[in-house]
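Need residues for this backbone.
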């Protein structure tokens, strides 16, 4: 009985120890499997993340900014104004790392099939001096090995080209002005409302044919002085040679009445015919 007493506890101890050992092995295996699953998940996530990066293809987002004759800037894909109008165009590519890019800007007049101007840079600038409607597109190609991404006619058929409309020209000169220092009609210049004038040259002569003044910008004009001194009130002569964006040429010859004693209350700014 004594022997049996010792044998039974020993068996129990051995059995408990074996159970603990099995539990530790099981926990170790579970931990190992968990670590492998975690590592595999991280690898898969990294792979997919890398795949997402690799799946980003080059794109373009063309924009246009215009500066008018007054120096005011406008950003728009459609613009109407008078010449000269300066346009700055950008392709704005993205996701181009590792790619070789080429660009082709095409400027085309409405009703024509062939562009009148082609440029090959990512950004370009052009001054519009011709009346009418102009369309502007950029064809972009991105190459990396055998991978070629193109933005051509199909892209522009879907988005629509950028457009610029230049108005027809207009130019008139007044027949009088009153440089009396009241700040009203003190300068002899083109009438307000002139537009799309791309070339301009004006001359003032006295009655003996002596040139007193000349200027080349319709926004500027004559202040009624010669060599810094006021000229006498009287009749002078203006000659204007100009050209419009629509191809129209101007050659204006007329008398100019210099009226120092007049004010705005006695004359309509010297602009009446």
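Answer:
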């Amino acid at each position: 009985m004594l022997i049996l007493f010792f044998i039974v506890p020993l068996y129990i101890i051995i059995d408990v120890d074996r159970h603990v050992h099995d539990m530790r092995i099981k926990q170790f295996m579970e931990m190992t499997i968990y670590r492998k699953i975690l590592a595999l998940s991280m690898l898969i996530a990294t792979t997919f993340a890398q795949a997402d990066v690799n799946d980003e293809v080059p794109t373009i987002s063309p924009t246009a900014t215009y500066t008018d004759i007054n120096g005011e800037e406008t950003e728009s894909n459609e613009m109407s104004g008078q010449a000269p109008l300066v346009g700055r165009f950008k392709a704005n590519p993205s996701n181009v790392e590792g790619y070789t890019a080429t660009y082709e800007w095409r400027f085309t007049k409405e009703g024509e099939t062939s562009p009148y101007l082609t440029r090959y840079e990512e950004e370009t600038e052009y001054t519009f001096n011709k009346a009418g409607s102009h369309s502007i597109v950029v064809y972009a190609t991105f190459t990396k090995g055998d991978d070629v991404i193109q933005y051509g006619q199909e892209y522009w058929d879907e988005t629509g080209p950028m457009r610029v409309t230049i108005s027809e020209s207009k130019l008139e000169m007044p027949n009088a002005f009153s440089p009396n220092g009241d700040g009203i009609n003190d300068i002899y210049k083109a009438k307000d409302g002139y537009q799309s004038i791309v070339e301009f040259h004006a001359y003032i002569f006295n009655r003996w044919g002596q040139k007193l003044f000349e200027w080349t910008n319709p926004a500027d004009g004559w202040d009624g002085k010669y060599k810094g001194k006021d000229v006498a009130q009287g009749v002078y002569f203006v000659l204007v040679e100009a050209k419009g964006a629509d191809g129209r040429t101007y050659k204006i010859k007329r008398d100019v009445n210099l009226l120092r004693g007049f004010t705005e209350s006695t004359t309509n700014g010297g602009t009446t015919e």
